[in-house]
TrEMBL record:
Signal is among the record's keywords: yes
Annotated Purple acid phosphatase N-terminal domain residues: 37-104
Native source organism of the sequence: Niastella yeongjuensis
Protein name from the UniProt record: Metallophosphoesterase
Keyword Magnesium assigned: no
Domain Calcineurin-like phosphoesterase positions: 128-343
GO MF terms held by the record: acid phosphatase activity; metal ion binding
Alphabetical keyword list: Signal
Signal peptide stretch: 1-22
Amino acid sequence: MKRKLIAGMAVAGLLLPFISSAQRKPDVQAHLIRGPYLQVASSTSIVIRWRTDALQRSVVNYSPDEKELKGLAEDPALTFEHKVTITGLSPRTKYYYAIGGGPGDTLQKGSDNYFVTLPPPGAEGSYRIGVFGDCGNNSVNQRSVRDQVIKYLADKPMDAWILLGDNAYTSGQDPEFQEKFFNIYKDNLLKKYPLFPAPGNHDYNDFYQYKATAQATHDIAYYQNFSMPTKGECGGVASGTQAFYSFDIGNVHFLSIDSYGKEDKETRLYDTLGAQVQWIKKDLEAFHNTKRGWVVAYWHHPPYTMGSHNSDHETELVKIRENFIRILERYGVDLIVCGHSHLYERSRLMNGHYGMEATFNAAEHNLSSSTALYDGSENSCPYIKDSANKGTVYVVTGSAGAMGSRQATYPHDAMYYSYNELGGASMIEVNENRLELKWICSDGQIRDHFVMMKDVNRDQVITIKKGQAATLTASFIGTYKWNKGKDATRSIIVKPTAAKTVYEVVDPYTCLKDRFEVRVSK
């Protein structure tokens, strides 16, 4: 299988002819043909990868000061595929970097070559994660979606971006990755923002006639081209495999899942006694035992869709819905994001539907009837998750490159919003206990979004001594109106004299309300 992969790369002109050991000199002029791109990012470390057309050492100079790149990380081994790990970094810090083979042999540097380290695991803050599904087809749509995401970001950079599979059409071969993925995103996304991928069926179609073998061996370009946090170094429980893994971005825990490959050369994701599901359970248990925050799971094959694929008919989709997602719901996963079907679909907050589309009952399976647009329109309050942590929103966002048709029963009954006329990518934006997802279309419009909040609408009793002040803080992120005074801030300082005073704060749409009963003791 490896001989076939190398042969395919050579045909495409991406590998040099055989080079003897006598020719392997560090001073051979090398040119950059892939990257740089950022992998395995955490609050204190990152991996930088790139490819050259000649053997060269791997050297990265870096620093928060663009003009003085005093930091050095290197690998002296001569290679075409360069992979350098930088450790000892400071959280949430911007670093500029240059790559090359050493002094006087810089391949790339400049003001656009930078990364920002992630926040510490569990830290609350404001975070932004891009979501690209089925992107790698070298289409006009792919470039348009890319450009609109960059335009949307403007001066609001992403913390990271994730891939939902089918990252290089049609067969996931290395030349396809080069042409349809790395070349498309190299100048604007790959060298700035850490990437956490998941595989799709087309990524496993490397040399199509060997698809079944590739599913078992994982001997495909996808696993050669990407580095993943397999040791738990970015948060979560170590998976020991590139196929599935987890990581943290502040108080958001992500699980990247493989819905197509085989584990131990036998089991699949929907075989719930297999290695992947057993790891998922351990990972989610560990997260809930030690942290509080959001949980997002992503993979390729969606449990609900009536776009270019049919979740009532296709084996992977049916079995994932019937066997697997109930486990994630049991562990309180907040958001599930998939690709495969080339459109956008989004459910309400739902729970407990594992059958065919015809068995979906909104009254039974939707935990909220709201649109969650949270814009003042009718019935648009946010989805709210309390301490019971029940309910999941399902999103299909598989049109960052590929476009497709729709099924006869489109839209799926479980979906609040569906759209297949234009492609797009999604943006997950988290601010403490508020999560919002936006779907950014190829024409720049945001055609859908929703807001979900956790642990809001609180009722508290606070006791202070006479003459003391108390600080009251709203449980939600947004706009505030307090019942006493004209304050519009999230926190206010009060110094009541009465034995009991009630303070209330609401949002502009009367969706959210906190109540504080302040008691003054003698």
